[in-house]
Amino acid sequence: MIPSRKWALLVAYGYTEDTQRLWLRFLQQAGLDPAHALVLDNKAPTLPGVLAGSNRYFEFSGYSELLEHVSDSRAAEDVVYLFNDTLFSHHWTHGWAQLIQDNSQIPFGIYGDPRLEPVDLDGRPLRILASWHFALHGHQATTTLQEALINVLSQFDRPIKDPAYQAYQANYLQPRWWGGYTKVLTPEAYAIKQRCIWAEHRLSRKLEESTELQAYPSGSYPQVHRMDRLLAAKRRITNLFQA
């Protein structure tokens, strides 16, 4: 069944005219209508028509606030594409636009950029949807994400007690050219990143209780994902040489 509308929602931190140009070009490449696109800026918005985000829980509160803002306008069969602005700095923007264009009639459900992390959480392998992007087809998919966000945000500052998971995070956030995070962080940024990774993983675990964590049903997704990994490696090498 063809959805009645496709929504494109972006959470940014400092939405500038340059970011706006990138966003509008992406919408065009993906076949998404700017009339059904909305931007929330977690910094102080400077451009007209942009919503002010609280930034209380970073991208996660931004997603929740955007979904709430359009809740009365969505139809039961709409598709909602959620992004944060790492779309333009960390991902193969054109490849993702083409992936969305080629999958314009995805079945009902939740789709995104799945990963299998090298750690168990609560005794089970940790499979996630990377929180930079979600594609939600249908009322149930949107409701499932909204409810999962509410649950995770209510416990956003819950401490991490699992020693194995703590070690996994510490290893991931150690920058190196062949893996891990892409830059050296200040102590404050490190603490924020820890909390956001923890929220991302608990969000996926909560979603997993209700639905399958799915990649786009397209043979081109693996190619797009590989290109993202190559871009990440390039950033790591560049940042390590600049450190």
**Helical region count?**
7
Integer-rounded radius of gyration: 17 Å
Second-tier CATH architecture? Alpha-Beta Complex
The fold-level CATH name is Spore Coat Polysaccharide Biosynthesis Protein SpsA, Chain A
CATH class: Alpha Beta
Helix- and strand-based class?
Answer: alpha/beta
- General form: globular
Largest beta-sheet details: 7 strands, mixed
Overall pLDDT: 92
Taken as a percent bin, the fraction of beta residues is 15-25%
Instruction: State the helicity in percent bands.
Output: 40-55%
Kindly give the count of domains. 1
The tally of beta strands, per DSSP, is 7
Distance between the termini: 51 Å
Could you name the ranges where pLDDT drops below 50 across 5 or more consecutive residues? none
Q: Can you write the helix and strand succession as a string?
A: EHEEHEHEEHHHEH
Order of strands across the widest beta sheet? 3-2-1-4-6-5-7
